[in-house]
Amino acid sequence: MSSKEAKMIIEKDFKISEIDPRIYGSFIEHLGRAVYGGIYEPGHPEADENGFRKDVINLVKELNVPLIRYPGGNFVSGYNWEDGVGPLENRPQRLDLAWKTTETNEIGINEFMKWANMANAEVNMAVNLGTRGIDAARNLVEYCNHPSGSYYSDLRISHGVKEPYKIKTWCLGNEMDGPWQIGHKTAEEYGRIACEAAKVMKWVDPSIELVACGSSNRAMPTFAEWEATVLDHAYDHVDYISLHQYYGNQEDDIANYLALSLEMDDFIRSVISIADYVKAKKRSKKTINLSFDEWNVWYHSNEADKLIEPWSVAPPLLEDHYNFEDALLVGCMLITLLKHADRVKIACLAQLVNVIAPIMTEKKGKAWKQTIYYPFMHASNFGRGVVLNPLVSSPKYDSKDFTDVPYLESTAVYNEETEELTIFAVNRSQEDSLSLTCDIRNFDGYSVVEHLVLENENIKQTNSAKDSPVVPHKFGNTVLDSGIVTAKLPKLSWNVIRLAGKK
Ligand code: AHR
């Protein structure tokens, strides 16, 4: 087998930024089997007294997800949060127009907060700026975060929740630029309502942080103008602008597919430029950061979704079965997010359970890990600390839509507290392994802990409840000698090279 050569120089002091743990966030929407039949399945052998599946919670905990966006997504734009609180027998069954399903409201805010707490995650709560607006938004903040002595805080207490949740991060609606959105708005309309909702939500609780909707993806015809207009209106009242992006390999062009993280990189750079343009225009001292609050691969389930019976309860919508190449792209996307940790402070893998998810469940059966579970788990567990700016040189290729795609996609994270240095690396080559030489100069006394590798002979290989052929192994080939790390990265592979100092 032939090999290509790549080099890295990793210098302790070349820091991009401290990583905000919230970049390892995820997302649960009232959609398909994410909630009902996903996190919640009363009667399942693994269900606890609340009906929450313990096997699912354990898999979520392994992912170490610090933040979960809820309850949507497109769903939130038609959602009355009041439907999901209080006695179960009074909760209405509603048509969810976003996904043409029936919402039973068996799970609402209080149940979800309980679940998130068990999963060790905070909640990133979205408010409905589609069918509703400022009033419902400020009432929800009052219900969740005000201690007591007001109508909505006392209502929460009457629902058995004495202490306020102190939810810190809030989304001002969802994808309001999209014609598919319930209550779709122009940038002017959304900019105004986002500004006014943000203002009063912060009057109720000044400690909250707010995310304004950016574009639904980079291909939207209003992209860039949308962000500029929305921020023009809401700049002083919001803290983040959102980005959403999903990719697919519809054309079955692996070289081009694996290069899509370069487009993600460009998207992030563009949104930073727009936010900073508005900052300059306003002569503001405040910087708006980025919340990449929906990202993933999504395309495998598109055809199956057309066959779903309308108005079903929790049908199997958006159940993508991910293959090995999807895991490689997810790895490249994680590295891209890390490279922008100075401005991307929140990111949510969309979604978490059953719906375009790393975790799948069988009714009355097993919970299992998709291929994309592994790169996310590795990054979330080992990618904590400071992201460094290594000097990388790699051979490159051209694909249908990209030029100069590096075969090596990589970054390095230094955890000062635990004295750990982790190199994340994807080899995009379909033919050759990459011989990586990495100069780690001032990491004196470090040694190799392990080299995790996700590889598979079959790029289209998936996992299932019965069988998991795509799992990482620990037999990566890394040696550290006199400050030089040498590693062989197999063709088409995700690699995690873990090094540690003497403690
Ligand atoms: O994550 C699935 C859907 O994708 C979300 O509901 C929506 O925000 C996006 O279009």
How would you characterize this protein structure?
- It is a single chain.
- The protein is an alpha/beta fold.
- It has an 8-stranded parallel barrel with strand order 3-4-7-8-9-10-11-12, surrounded by 6 helices.
- A hairpin with a 4-residue loop joins strand 19 and strand 20.
- The protein is globular and about 65 Å long.
- The two termini are 39 Å apart.
- The structure holds alpha-L-arabinofuranose (AHR).
Short structural description:
It contains eleven helices and 25 strands.
Brief descriptors of the model:
alpha/beta; 503 residues; 11 helices; globular
Bound ligand species: alpha-L-arabinofuranose
- Helix vs. strand class: alpha/beta
Overall outline: globular
Number of strands: 25
List the helices and strands and how they pair.
Blueprint lengths: L2 E7 L5 E4 L6 E3 L26 H10 L3 E4 L23 E3 L4 E3 L5 H10 L3 E6 L6 H12 L5 H8 L10 E4 L14 H18 L4 E4 L12 H10 L5 E8 L6 H5 L1 H22 L7 E9 L4 H4 L18 H16 L4 E7 L8 E3 L5 E3 L3 H10 L3 E3 L2 E3 L2 E2 L7 E2 L1 E8 L4 E8 L5 E7 L7 E9 L21 E5 L2 E6 L3 E8 L3
Parallel strand pairs: 1-21, 3-4, 3-12, 4-7, 7-8, 8-9, 9-10, 10-11, 11-12
Antiparallel strand pairs: 1-16, 2-15, 5-6, 13-14, 15-19, 17-18, 19-20, 20-25, 21-24, 22-25, 23-24
Helix pairs in contact: 3-4, 3-5, 5-6, 6-8, 8-10, 10-11
